[in-house]
Q: What sequence folds into this?
């Protein structure tokens, strides 16, 4: 069934009108270095609300209003606009942000106002780990889920790996989790390289990596953890790491970033989502509707935003309320269907447990990017995700 999104259901950053029954604040980086991710996340959130309410934009007879707050991908602004959403706009639930650094700044605000914050899609383990509080739920995957799935895809006896990551919570948490996950695979890490988030010249970093791997016997890989622009994979590949016996590896990414993967057919890793991989009714609807409306397939963070939107509707329906304590009691252990299949909020840390996908890149006719083709689905039971809080 085709569902029609009610345009009146979206208000941009203004105070909640008196007629609104349920107010959801999307607090995310509309502008800034991750705005491409942010746009997908918002699009997915709205599609998720539409799908879960069958186009009515109502839950239990109450209307949904979505307000938007721009963090500009800055932690201090994220903290301020989330407080504004809860305190001035009367938001019942907030969703966001994109950046892990911004998310970490926002977590204490949720605790201060005693309101639910659904983190989507910020990844750092510490969000549902050392910096977590009971008002925080995350529908996005965390660094450990990324790391464990990539360790399964890349690890093995005699494999030596170097890492390149951005020097902030996303990169450092990701490498720490990856290092831990590799311990059970027989692989080892020879070198860790961290660079500023806005790095565009990777020559020096790559040379340090090549030097660290010099003389290492056996299979050698460079695993890249990156968000945003800069294209480290393409630029390092242009330096011909194969002359040092090094293969490049990385996780999944948005479609625009997959253009760099076309240069590396056979590249392996693990991904959170690619629209042709999951086989379920929710993803079928998302792909069909997205193609019909935008003439493009849904992307990496569209699926995540949709998962958050569906979770909100199901939680309010089941709780029969938007009261925080009712929602927490309902959401702990809650299972719901998403474009990736079933997700489950783990009661201990409110992290959404979910499938990940081991892929191998192929070059296919008609596509200007490297296509991540499924090797193996890693389900909830296939990954032992640590509890870190």
A:
């Amino acid at each position: 069934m085709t569902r029609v999104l009610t345009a009146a259901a979206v208000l941009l950053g203004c105070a909640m009108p008196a007629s609104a029954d349920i107010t959801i604040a999307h607090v995310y980086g509309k502008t800034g270095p991750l705005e491409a991710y942010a746009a997908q996340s918002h699009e997915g959130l709205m599609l998720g609300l539409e799908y879960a309410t069958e186009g009515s934009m109502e839950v239990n007879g109450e209307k949904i209003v979505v307000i938007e707050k721009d963090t500009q991908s800055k932690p201090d602004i994220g903290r301020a606009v989330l407080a504004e959403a809860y305190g001035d706009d009367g938001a019942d639930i907030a969703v966001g942000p994109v950046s892990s650094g911004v998310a970490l700044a926002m977590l204490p605000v949720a605790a201060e106002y005693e309101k639910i914050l659904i983190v989507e899609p910020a990844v750092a383990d510490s969000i549902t780990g050392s910096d977590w509080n009971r008002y925080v739920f995350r529908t996005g995957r965390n660094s450990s889920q990324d790391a464990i799935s990539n360790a399964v895809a890349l690890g093995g006896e005699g494999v030596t790996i170097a890492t390149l990551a951005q020097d902030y919570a996303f990169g450092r948490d990701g490498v720490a989790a990856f290092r831990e996950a590799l311990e059970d695979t027989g692989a080892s890490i020879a070198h860790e390289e961290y660079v500023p988030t806005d790095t565009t010249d990777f020559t020096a970093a790559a040379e340090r990596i090549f030097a660290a791997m010099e003389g290492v016997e056996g299979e050698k890989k460079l695993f890249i953890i990156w968000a945003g622009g800069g294209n480290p994979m393409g630029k390092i590949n242009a330096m011909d790491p194969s002359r040092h016996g090094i293969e490049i590896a990385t996780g999944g990414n948005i479609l625009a970033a997959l253009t760099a993967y076309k240069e590396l057919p056979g590249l392996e890793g693990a991904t959170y989502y690619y629209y042709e991989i999951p086989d379920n009714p929710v993803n079928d609807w998302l792909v069909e509707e997205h193609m019909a409306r935008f003439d493009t397939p849904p992307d990496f963070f569209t699926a995540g935003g949709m998962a958050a939107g569906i979770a909100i509707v199901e939680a309010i329906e089941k709780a029969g309320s938007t009261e925080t304590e009712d929602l927490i009691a309902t959401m702990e252990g809650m299972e719901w269907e998403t474009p990736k299949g079933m997700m489950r909020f783990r009661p201990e840390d409110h992290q959404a447990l979910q499938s990940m996908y081991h892929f191998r890149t192929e070059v296919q006719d008609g596509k200007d990017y490297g296509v991540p083709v499924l090797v193996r689905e890693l389900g909830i039971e296939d990954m032992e995700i640590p509890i870190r809080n």
